[in-house]
Description:
The chain is α/β, with parallel strands linked by helices and 316 residues long. The protein is built from twelve helices and seven strands. The protein has helices spanning 7-21, 44-48, 65-77, 93-103, 105-113, 133-141, 183-191, 202-216, 218-225, 234-245, 256-268, 280-315; strands at 26-32, 53-58, 82-84, 121-127, 160-163, 167-170, 174-175.
Amino acid sequence: MTIQWFPGHMAKARRQVSENLKLVDIIFELVDARLPLSSRNPMIDEVINQKPRLLILNKQDMADETETRRWIAYFEERGHRAVAINSFEGKGLQSVNKAAQEILKEKWERMKAKGMKPRAIRAMIVGIPNVGKSTLINRLAKKNLAKTGNTPGVTKAQQWIKVGKEIELLDTPGILWPKFEDQEIGYKLALTGAIKDTITNMEDLAVYGLRFLALHYPERMEERYKIDSVNEDLVVTFDHIGQLRRVFGQGGEIDYDQVALLIVRDIRDQNLGKLTFDFVDEQVEKERLEELIAQENEERRQKNLLMKQQKQQDTN
Ligand SMILES: Nc1nc2c(ncn2[C@@H]2O[C@H](COP(=O)(O)OP(=O)(O)OP(=O)(O)O)[C@@H](O)[C@H]2O)c(=O)[nH]1
Ligand SMILES: [Mg+2]
């Protein structure tokens, strides 16, 4: 079930994460490898504050491999450790373990220097709905589930799952709300299954999907639909795909609702291959522009201030 995020829900989710935050050494922030930015909680940095964090790009198997590599580099260049995994098949789990230990290496050494006994790293998984939190917990738990129990000194209701010798994982993940910042993010989340279909209009979603494919994956579109662009007149494109895939209604005419559904399903079921919906290049360009605007604004402010001071001096 997809949660409808009302302000009350958001506050509650945030509170739950904040409370559990105190119990752990590190946060595993789970995002969808197909949309590593759009599947992040908009306030995650604020929520988890200074707590060490490992960014985990899950569902690696469904994402464009080149883009995933670029995203990992993007995050690492900005000082965030990031790994890509496939929780469904349990691929890449070792990298989670390894990265967590590396992130906490200094803290552990400090503890050791103070004469504290070595203990397992305590971690909590957080992420938006459907990103794979439960799947990852089950994967990590599978081999060692036998050793589940309450850790003394920690809230009794919380269960810790042993992951190898080095990590203990909180059994309940922190569910956070997704971004609703703009329409496009909404479409991306809907196309990857993070938002329920009832929230989005299928036809709008299909049109977004087609435009997205034409822009980023025209050759895949060509292969599947025998077109590599979207006609200005959308009916032409829908007619074409409807004919090609023989999507007819009762009277033999093309059923546009079904064509829309087919397009969305094709994208979700990977009939157009592995797709990534957030692009590093676009993000870098966006950041560059934002920086430029901020710089210009600052320069203008300085200039205005100088002019004001000048005027003041002139009148004096
Ligand atoms: N292909 C693929 N599917 C995955 C992967 N991880 C999880 N899934 C699938 O994604 C869906 C959601 O996974 P869950 O583990 O239930 O996600 P969740 O984050 O716990 O979701 P909520 O409990 O609703 O917040 C399931 O159908 C999983 O099988 C992955 O790495 N690859
Ligand atoms: Mg779950």
